[in-house]
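input
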Amino acid sequence: MKLNIKKDIDELIMFNIYSFRKAIKSIKVTNTEKFIDDLLNRPSLLLSCLSRGFDLDDHEKIELNCLLTCNIPLEFSAKIDNHGVNCWLLGENINGESLGNLGNEKQELIELLESLRLPKEIVIKTFELNQKIGKSESKFTYTTKNY
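output
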């Protein structure tokens, strides 16, 4: 007997915005290892939120991505598509020069943060979600007014 329980992805699936609440929460700036770890772990948290409701095999049929921009020159990003799954912590130095992915570069992240005038909290300025499943596409963008 052969069981065929695999089904196609429903093109009407929408993001569960509520599941991202922890990922878009502001980060209190402190002079601790926990603060740095929170920044470094945020892209993985974002990827976890993005992948909820999808099977591992689904990445070949979907395109999901999320981008969070902050009130300092950092961006958190996650993507699921036919190339696989990935997440990044992107940064720019004070000259506007891209530092690339800082996700595994703790010392480089610390040097970037030391070069900035840090606010009391790192706040998410823009929260952008893009989804493409089959012929269905959706985009959600939220921009905070006060940060």
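quick obs: The chain has a mean pLDDT of 83.
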